[in-house]
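Hey all, quick one. A colleague (J.T.) asked me to put the nicotinamide-adenine-dinucleotide job into the tracker so the inputs and the structure tokens live in one place instead of scattered across chat threads. No bug as far as I know, just bookkeeping. Sequence used:
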Amino acid sequence: MNFKNVTIAGSGVLGYQIAFQTAFHGFNVTVYDINDKVLDKAKAKFELMSEAFKRDLGATQEQLDATFKNLHYNSDLKEAVKDADLVIEAVPENPQIKLDFYQKLAKAAPEKTIFATNSSTLLPSQFADTTGRPEKFAALHFANTIWINNTAEIMGHADTDRAVFDALVDFAKAIGMVALPLYKEQPGYILNSLLVPLLSAATNLLVNDVADFETIDKTWMVATGAPMGPFGILDVVGITTAYNINQMQAEKTQDPLKIKTVEYLKEQFIDKNKLGVATGEGFYKYPNPAYKEKNFLK
Ligand SMILES: NC(=O)c1ccc[n+]([C@@H]2O[C@H](COP(=O)([O-])OP(=O)(O)OC[C@H]3O[C@@H](n4cnc5c(N)ncnc54)[C@H](O)[C@@H]3O)[C@@H](O)[C@H]2O)c1
């Protein structure tokens, strides 16, 4: 299975990054979104991406010119997928929007086309039947700022064809990702299955007044050799994401500790616009967070 033409559906936060990364690595990419106005916005974001590729990866002007030549745009679904070997879906994280999209895509795409979802929290089995080609469908999950944090988790559902799964692993490598295969469906994939409980345990210790956040980070860093602790990671992920996850858990479980965590994050961070690295301050102040100082681990 050799992919040449790749269509990226949805040109939002992740979609445009996947499109640029794929085009940079020589694939013929079509970017699809709901209308031409949204696609114009994506074009503007590609200019910013090319600056990031120069700065972070040392990309040459020649490579970037070739990347732009590989990028095409279409807001007509049938046209956008007519030659696609692979469609990567990065439409909003809303089950109904995704179901509607797969219904239309199933009709519009040629039989050969493989579909992959970039969904962070929904499972491929939720959409497999709607795709009309369950054996040619799996998840291919990227992380934000994919050209630096270049993980690609590949996860099929029970009926994904093994050859399709392997082709997605090869494709991920071909676009410069570290391919991370999962052999069964797992909510949160590998990364969030590890990260969410770690971050949650850290905020529990803090909100329960067991220790201060620097001591918690210091414990993790000294004991495991990690370059940052859970609160350093929370600043990178963004406090808003942590707040949203805790709020969902609090609503579901009514756990008093979770409710206290939600209030704490709101009062101390969200209301003060201390949202992490992105706003210059979260638990730590940036660009020189205290955990990077020489004496922090003493
Ligand atoms: N943002 C992240 O950090 C991140 C990380 C990993 C995975 N993801 C996943 O990627 C997917 C997209 O997330 P995002 O953050 O890029 O969302 P986003 O809201 O930034 O972008 C979604 C894009 O999809 C378009 N869209 C809406 N309906 C559509 C339709 N019917 N057909 C085609 N396009 C449509 C929107 O116009 C928008 O451009 C989600 O499944 C999300 O879980 C996001």
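Adding what we noticed when we looked at it: The beta strands are 5-9, 28-32, 71-74, 86-89, 114-117, 137-142, 151-156, 178-182. The first strand starts at residue 5 and ends at 9.
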